[in-house]
Specification:
single chain; mainly alpha; 81% helix; 0% strand; elongated
């Protein structure tokens, strides 16, 4: 039971971090819809999309692999890369 609650908490945390950053930073570009529906998308956006999907998959794998310190570092690194790619997307892509 605890692993299911931890998994749900991790998935919700990843989703909230992604949603809050994308909605706040890209609100002038239609927020979350712009992020997911823009086609063709620049390479940095594909990196950002891929890292958030990877973070969700890692969070969902918690019951199967266990939540250890290494698991937390991996999930944190993927989310860090996601946030970094969003920052670079905002800075480097024309408005």
């Amino acid at each position: 039971m605890q692993s299911i609650l931890i998994t749900v908490a991790l998935v919700v945390a990843v989703a909230l971090i992604h949603f809050s950053y994308v909605d706040f930073r890209f609100r002038y570009r239609d927020g979350i819809l712009w992020f997911w529906l823009l086609n063709p998308a620049p390479p940095l956006m594909w990196l950002a999309r891929g890292t958030v999907v990877a973070a969700m998959l890692v969070a969902l794998s918690a019951p199967f692999v266990g939540t250890s310190e290494t698991f937390a570092y991996v999930l944190g690194a993927i989310m860090g890369l996601h946030i970094l790619s969003l920052i670079l997307l905002e800075v480097l892509e024309p408005h």
